């Protein structure tokens, strides 16, 4: 069995607007799986259900149908087998970087000395060993995201869920963090599901890209560029990278055109 199995997941939100009840079918029959150590990117037009899918895997949202199985266990709520990184890492403002990373370990019941050592180890991994004692307001946006990644990795999740983790960063910081994430994954073999709108990011980081459209999986593209991969800047000149990116762009464009025709 694969490490992560998403089986026929559906989600309907019941909303009430001005006294009228309306069902929003956010997901219908979504299935895909990940082997240990794989990186899968989910992409697709705004509103196609990417975040809802990730929140269901995390256990923050309950599916209306289907199931999510992580390491043989059916997901029924949040758990330490899954870690999540959001677009804006909400750090506890009164805790410094190392104390923020240690937070999940504290909840897990780890003793103070061990969690301090562990938290510092993960801060080193994301290149922030020097900033361990800084408070969140003393960190840049990119540094805060690094703390968020360290915090999620420190609990030792089977799968790391990332919802547009670099979406709010400037282009240069984003490329730096993409390269760092690749290096961390090469070192730790962390299994990752990454939601992204950034096609370069999807092709650079993923083994497979799940293209979603209107709550369904429209297509799954194998990326499998050889690893270790060079930086995005170096990959841009690589014909295989260009070919995969073009294929992904065409697929997304076709899906968006089809959505627009349906809506017309
Ligand atoms: N709590 C909610 N209540 C009602 N509808 C919701 C809720 N959350 C999401 N939706 C709807 O479900 C659909 C999918 O939303 P979702 O946020 O998963 O899309 P997305 O692909 O992540 O979008 P984006 O790329 O813009 O972040 C949308 O129609 C959205 O309006």
UniProtKB/TrEMBL annotation:
<comment type="similarity">
    <text>Belongs to the ABC transporter superfamily.</text>
</comment>
<keyword id="KW-0067">ATP-binding</keyword>
<dbReference type="GO" id="GO:0005524">
    <property type="term" value="F:ATP binding"/>
</dbReference>
<dbReference type="InterPro" id="IPR050166">
    <property type="entry name" value="ABC_transporter_ATP-bind"/>
</dbReference>
<dbReference type="InterPro" id="IPR017871">
    <property type="entry name" value="ABC_transporter-like_CS"/>
</dbReference>
<keyword id="KW-0813">Transport</keyword>
<dbReference type="InterPro" id="IPR003439">
    <property type="entry name" value="ABC_transporter-like_ATP-bd"/>
</dbReference>
<dbReference type="GO" id="GO:0016887">
    <property type="term" value="F:ATP hydrolysis activity"/>
</dbReference>
<dbReference type="InterPro" id="IPR003593">
    <property type="entry name" value="AAA+_ATPase"/>
</dbReference>
<dbReference type="InterPro" id="IPR027417">
    <property type="entry name" value="P-loop_NTPase"/>
</dbReference>
<protein>
    <submittedName>
        <fullName>ABC transporter ATP-binding protein</fullName>
    </submittedName>
</protein>
<feature type="domain" description="ABC transporter">
    <location>
        <begin position="4"/>
        <end position="239"/>
    </location>
</feature>
<keyword id="KW-0547">Nucleotide-binding</keyword>
<dbReference type="Pfam" id="PF00005">
    <property type="entry name" value="ABC_tran"/>
</dbReference>
């Amino acid at each position: 069995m694969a490490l992560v199995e998403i089986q026929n997941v559906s989600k309907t939100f019941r909303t009430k607007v001005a006294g009228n009840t309306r069902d929003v079918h956010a997901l219908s029959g979504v299935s895909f799986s990940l082997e240990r150590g794989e990186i899968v990117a989910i992409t697709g037009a705004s509103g196609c259900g990417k975040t809802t899918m990730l929140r269901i895997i995390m256990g923050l949202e309950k599916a209306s149908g289907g199931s999510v199985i992580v390491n043989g266990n059916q997901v029924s709520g949040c758990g330490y087998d899954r870690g999540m990184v959001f677009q804006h890492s909400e750090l506890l403002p009164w805790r410094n970087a190392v104390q923020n990373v240690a937070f999940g370990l504290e909840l897990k019941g780890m003793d103070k000395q061990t969690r301090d050592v562990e938290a510092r180890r993960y801060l080193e991994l994301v290149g922030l060993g020097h900033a361990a004692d800084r408070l969140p307001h003393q960190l840049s946006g990119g540094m805060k995201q690094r703390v968020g990644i360290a915090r999620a990795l420190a609990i030792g999740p089977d799968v790391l869920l990332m919802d547009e983790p670099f979406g709010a960063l400037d282009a240069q910081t984003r490329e730096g963090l993409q390269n760092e994430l690749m290096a961390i994954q090469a070192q730790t073999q962390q299994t990752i599901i990454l939601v992204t709108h950034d096609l370069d990011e999807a092709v650079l980081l993923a083994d497979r890209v799940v293209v979603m459209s209107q709550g369904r999986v429209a297509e799954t593209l194998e990326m499998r560029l050889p690893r270790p991969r060079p930086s995005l800047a170096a990959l841009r000149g690589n014909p295989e990278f260009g070919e995969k990116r073009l294929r992904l762009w065409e697929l997304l464009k076709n899906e968006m055109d089809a959505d627009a025709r349906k809506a017309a």
